[in-house]
Structures are given as structure tokens and as C-alpha cells.
Design a protein that fits this description.
Structural class: alpha/beta
Number of domains: 4
Low-confidence stretches: 1-8, 514-524
Largest sheet: 6 strands, mixed
Number of helices: 28
Mean pLDDT: 84
Number of strands: 10
Radius of gyration: 32 Å
Length: 654
């Protein structure tokens, strides 16, 4: 196919396609995206094709859109793949596997050179070798090791690497079952290279290429917003030649880091990519709530190819650098073992503990832009450790009081627009004039304004004062369905309570949030335990009142997983006796809130749980259960007031 060959072709075999040509996946293309479903469909097509009556017939398998590469190689026709890279990559992996099997049994020779040179790699290895198919720069090194069977045991940095590895593994299994001899392997090579047909197309000019870019970017397996933005930015840098080379270089340098940090954050889903891009765009560009959900369209609109302003390319380049930094902070937030937490700017500081508290919360999307903004300021030495710690502590309080409270919490996205405005305004105040040296007053004034707005936000969307805040931890007498056990923030609340009681105890939030695996010690993990058991035989005269006592906040405690399973439904006296007798032993509880509960029991019942042998009448026992839970609940509410009060509220109370 020459550069002048620009019409839709008849079906072209893989063999004809690869004759004398090399292919490259441009960096603006997404990484490998095929999953098990697509790989299985291709293998099934091959099996059907091989069994077709009347001999091998050409079977349409897809469309390939190619353009001559902007970086040709001497003596070779090199084409960039605009569309069809997923299928061509998969076929290349399958051919690599099959060609390696085209060797006589017992032979120590390598794969047939003619096949290997045509479909896998041209030239002499280590001298003038040129891969027949070269993927984008982020994953090409891994792809090469995969084809050489040297990728086993490697750490996976990108989701596309995992998908490549999974696909290669599946096709290896398929080849072992279907091509386990030299003859059968050569037969399957023929099926792939002469039985599959592709329609190959080359755009006629740049305008048509641009149109096809838009169409391809929005069809097929959906691209994430992050992938679309990367594609557009590289395409922008190619088309806007004046002053755009820096943008392309920045993308090439930073995009791999962005994807790596997302992988290390264990946030590899499409929605996680969207959340990072959305939050960074809000801070940097000031996109409003709805605009931020479609960052690709908004960036395309504001940075149009029809506007050749050199300043636009520079601003986009700085945005990519900012996004890369934000990906690092995103990793620091969601990965407890992040190197950036422990070896970077935060080593030896109290910042890590504050980050861990925010990560353990059940809502992040509203506060994430402000979190990224503050982390960027600290990283660039705009604010110091003390200021960052204070702001992160305030964010944590606001997030809890608005989005995590048990009663009256707003919808998960309510008020986000105001939080986004605060984040962008703060960013602009401290970055807009790059030539101006910020004074301490400038920084302190901007941070004070941010504090004021956040507290106003909490009052508008949360509770107006501490009394209203405390009331949300009590059962609504008119709501018979309310149950604190179903409160999503209960575990977070009780972990904070435990750390309040035992300041020397550091609880790994990961262990609180994760499910225990079969190899872990049970007392490394924590469950929510009813003090007054749901199925306890001791009840009050009023069924509704009995149920209310079991649903209230004061009836819950944190407990190491599995410790209390044998007595979980026993009366409170028996349950606490068991816990106290085994406390601080290998299989017993070591939590401070259990110790405090033993003290409360002694105050109400007159004896420690392990010494208590009386058997009171049911009504009397139930009344004392109620008093015990009253005492526990009062202490929990007092803790909540101190823990999540704003400094100004504490001052007013004092």
C-alpha cells in the first residue's frame, strides 16, 4: 500500500499486509484494551474458519486505518496505525506463539526465520533489529519482553500491560491445545495469515485524518476521558506545529508516569481515571461541575485546532505537568505503601497520618480537587508542613460533617460545585502571577479565606452548630427503621474513637477496610460488634423499645474479628465476662474501647464483668442494659464533638 493508495481496499490478507511493511502505534493512541471476551471471539472465528467446508476462504476480521509514519525508517515502509491496533496487536501475539511452535519436536533450532522476520521482527537481533509492530512508548518495552517470554513475574505498572499479559497467556493455552505439533502450528499460521482479511484504508489528506480521528475516538470499545484527552493533546501538538513541540515532549515524558501512579494507587478502573482527570481539570481550568464530567469536550472547545495561539500549547503543557503531579498525590492518597508517602517530601512528618484519615473516609469526590491543590502547593513550597496539616485536618472534618454523618447527610454530590469553586479560587490566588514573589501575608490571607468558605459550606450543607451536629448521633424517635449498624461511616467513627482512647495505638486503616484473607491473624482485623446482641433473650416489656436499644449508636463497639463469635448472642454480662477474662491474651481483645466498656459495666452493675454472678429479673437487667448503653453513647457523642468540632467552635465553647 503506497502513499497514493487511498481508496478502500478489497479484503487484504495478513500475509499481504505484512509484506515489506512495519507498523507503529502512535503515542496518542490508547494502550492495549482487549479483554477476555474479544480474545475469545477472535479464537472462535479462527476455529470456525479452519473447519469451513470447501477449503480456507477469506474471512473479514476488521478494518485497519493507516497513515505513512512521520518518522520513517531507512529501507522500510513504516505506517502509523490510526485504527485497528487492538486486533493487529492480538494477531501479532498469536503469530509469535504459533511461529515458535513451528519447530520439529526435539529440535534445538529457533523458530523459522522467514516467518519470524516477516511477522515479528526484521533485521539481526541486537544490530539492526526493527520490530514489525511497535506499540506506543509506554508499553513497548513490556510488549517486547512478553514476546520474548521474559515478562513472567514482572510487576505490572499499567492496565494495558495486564491486558496484554492476560491475552498472551490465554492464547498460549489455546495454542497448547490446538497447535501442539509443528504441522498443526504451521497450519494455524496459514489460517491466520491467509484466511483472515482486513480492509485497509488510508485517509486522503489531513482534514480527512482529523475527521477520522474524531470518529474513531468515539466508537468501538469506549475510550476513557483520560485516553481521549491524551489522544487530543498529542493530535493538537502534531497539527499546531508552531510552539507545540514542548507539549508533545511533555506528554511523552509525563503520561507514562500518570498511568503508573494510577496503577500504584490500585485505582485502574475507568471511573478512577475520570476522577483524577476531573479533579485536576477543576483546579487548573476552573471547570464547573457539569463541565468537569466531560473534560475532553471542554478542553477541545477551549483549545481548538482553529486557534493557533502559542500560549495555548504552553498552557496545555503546564496542565499535563500538573496532572502528572496530581497523579502522584492521588497515589499517595490511595496507596498506604506509596513510596511518595514514606520516602518523599512527607518522610518524618505528620502529614502521612492526616492523608490516611482522609483515605479511610467513605467519600472523596467532593474534596479531591482541594486535596490535590494543597498537595501541589506543599510540593512546590508555597505552603509549609504546618499549613498543609491544618488544611488537611479541616478538609477531613468538613467531609465527615457533610458527607459521612449518620443522619441528615446530603446526597453524595450535593455542594460539589461550591467545593470545586473554592479549590480553583485558591489555586488562582497563589499561582496566577508567576512573576510575583508571594509574601507570607498573601499565602496566609488566601488560606484564611479558604478556611472561612469551608466552614460556611459545612454550615450550609451539614449542621449549623455543634448542638445540631451532636443530635445526629441519636436515634430519631419517630424513625423506627433507623439503625446505626447500617451507617457507612460507623467503622471509621469507631476506629477514630479507638485512637482517641489509646493515642499510642496506630491502626492500619487498610486492615480495617479490607476483608481478612485465610492466612492472616484474626486480631489484625476489626468488625462491628453489637454490645446488646440482636438475638439476645433478655428483652424489655416494650418490643419497640427493645429494638431501639439495639439500633442506637451506644450499642456498637469495635472488636477484633472472630473473637466474640462463640458468645455473640449471649446476655451482656456473659459476653463481657468472656471478653474481660481473655483480654490482652493472644486470642483476646486488646482494644481500649473494650476496656472502657468493662469500666462502664462496673459503674452500672457494681462489679467487674468477670466477678459478676448475680441473675437479676429480666426487667431490671433490661433497665441496666439501657443505662449502660446511655453511658456508652454519651461518651461517643462527647468524643464526636471534640474530634470533629472546628477550632472556632471549641473556642466559643471554652
Amino acid at each position: 500500500m503506497s502513499a497514493s493508495d487511498n481508496v478502500i481496499q478489497s479484503l487484504t490478507t495478513v500475509s499481504a499486509l505484512f509484506t515489506g511493511r512495519c507498523f507503529r502505534v502512535p503515542d496518542y493512541q490508547r494502550g492495549y484494551a482487549w479483554e477476555a471476551q474479544q480474545v475469545e471471539a477472535l479464537l472462535e472465528d479462527l476455529e470456525v474458519l479452519a473447519k469451513s467446508e470447501g477449503g480456507l476462504s477469506l474471512h473479514y476480521t476488521g478494518t485497519l486505518v493507516l497513515v505513512p509514519s512521520a518518522t520513517p525508517e531507512e529501507g522500510r515502509d513504516v505506517f502509523d496505525i490510526v485504527d485497528g491496533q487492538q486486533r493487529l496487536t492480538t494477531l501479532s501475539m498469536l503469530l509469535n506463539i504459533l511461529i515458535k511452535k513451528c519447530v520439529r519436536e526435539g529440535s534445538d533450532q529457533g523458530p523459522p526465520d522467514d516467518l519470524y522476520q516477516k511477522y515479528i521482527s526484521r533485521g539481526v537481533k541486537g544490530i539492526n533489529e526493527a520490530p514489525t509492530l511497535k506499540l506506543n512508548s509506554d508499553i513497548e518495552p513490556f510488549f517486547r519482553r512478553l514476546l520474548d517470554d521474559k515478562a513472567e513475574g514482572e510487576n505490572i505498572e499499567f492496565l494495558s500491560e495486564k491486558r496484554l499479559k492476560d491475552a498472551y497467556k490465554r492464547m498460549n493455552v489455546w495454542a497448547e491445545e490446538n497447535a501442539n505439533t509443528e504441522a498443526s502450528a504451521r497450519t494455524w499460521v496459514d489460517v491466520v495469515t491467509t484466511g483472515l482479511g482486513l480492509i485497509v484504508y488510508q485517509p486522503q489528506d489531513e482534514n480527512e485524518a482529523g475527521m477520522m480521528f474524531e470518529v474513531i475516538n468515539n466508537r468501538g470499545k469506549p475510550l476513557t476521558e483520560l485516553e481521549k484527552v491524551k489522544n487530543y493533546l498529542i493530535y493538537y501538538s502534531i497539527k499546531q506545529k508552531d510552539g507545540a513541540s514542548t507539549l508533545k515532549n511533555t506528554i511523552n515524558e509525563e503520561w507514562g508516569r500518570i498511568l503508573k501512579h494510577l496503577a500504584l494507587a490500585h485505582q485502574m478502573r475507568d471511573i478512577d481515571n475520570q476522577q483524577l482527570l476531573r479533579s485536576a481539570s477543576i483546579v487548573y481550568f476552573g471547570f464547573r461541575k457539569q463541565e468537569s464530567n466531560a473534560a475532553y469536550n471542554k478542553i477541545k472547545e477551549e483549545f481548538s485546532l482553529h486557534n493557533s495561539d502559542i500560549g495555548h500549547a504552553k498552557k496545555l503543557s503546564r496542565f499535563v505537568e500538573f496532572l502528572s503531579r496530581c497523579a502522584r498525590y492521588y497515589e499517595a492518597l490511595f496507596n498506604y505503601d506509596s513510596r511518595f508517602r514514606h520516602d518523599g517530601l512527607f518522610k518524618g512528618t505528620s502529614i502521612v497520618e492526616q492523608i490516611e484519615l482522609i483515605r479511610a473516609q467513605t467519600a472523596h469526590s467532593g474534596i479531591l480537587p482541594l486535596f490535590l491543590c494543597l498537595m501541589w502547593f506543599y510540593h512546590n513550597r508555597v505552603i509549609d508542613e504546618k499549613a498543609l496539616h491544618a488544611k488537611l485536618a479541616l478538609i477531613e472534618r468538613v467531609n465527615f460533617r457533610v458527607y459521612m454523618i449518620p443522619v441528615g447527610a446530603v446526597r453524595s454530590d450535593s455542594g460539589h460545585g461550591e467545593l470545586f469553586r473554592i479549590a480553583h479560587h485558591l489555586f488562582c490566588r497563589l499561582t496566577d502571577d508567576a512573576d510575583k514573589q508571594l509574601s507570607d501575608y498573601d499565602v496566609e490571607s488566601a488560606l484564611a479565606e479558604c478556611d472561612s468558605w469551608l466552614k460556611e459550606f459545612a454550615a450550609e450543607y451539614g449542621h449549623r452548630n455543634l448542638d445540631e451536629f451532636k443530635e445526629c448521633f441519636r436515634l430519631n424517635p419517630l424513625d423506627t427503621n433507623q439503625d446505626f449498624y447500617r451507617w457507612r461511616g460507623l467503622r471509621y467513627f469507631l476506629v477514630n474513637y479507638e485512637q482517641h482512647l489509646d493515642g499510642g495505638r496506630k491502626i492500619n486503616i487498610d486492615l480495617v477496610k479490607q476483608k481478612r484473607d485465610s492466612t492472616s491473624r484474626h486480631n489484625d482485623y476489626f468488625s462491628i460488634e453489637h454490645i446488646y446482641a440482636q438475638n439476645c433473650v433478655i428483652t424489655g416489656n416494650d418490643e419497640l423499645e427493645t429494638a431501639r436499644q439495639k439500633r442506637r449508636l451506644g450499642n456498637f463497639m469495635l472488636l477484633e474479628l472472630g473473637i466474640n463469635s462463640s458468645v455473640s448472642n449471649n446476655p451482656i454480662e456473659d459476653k463481657l465476662e468472656h471478653l474481660e477474662l481473655n483480654a490482652n491474651k493472644e486470642q483476646g481483645t486488646k482494644l481500649a474501647q473494650a476496656g472502657r466498656l468493662f469500666e462502664d459495666f462496673e459503674e452500672i452493675f457494681g462489679q467487674k464483668p468477670r466477678d459478676y454472678k448475680k441473675r437479676l429479673k429480666t426487667k431490671t437487667r433490661f433497665n441496666r442494659y439501657t443505662k449502660l448503653l446511655d453511658l456508652v453513647e454519651a461518651r461517643l457523642i462527647e468524643f464526636a464533638e471534640k474530634r470533629w468540632a472546628f477550632d472556632s467552635e471549641k473556642t466559643n465553647q471554652g
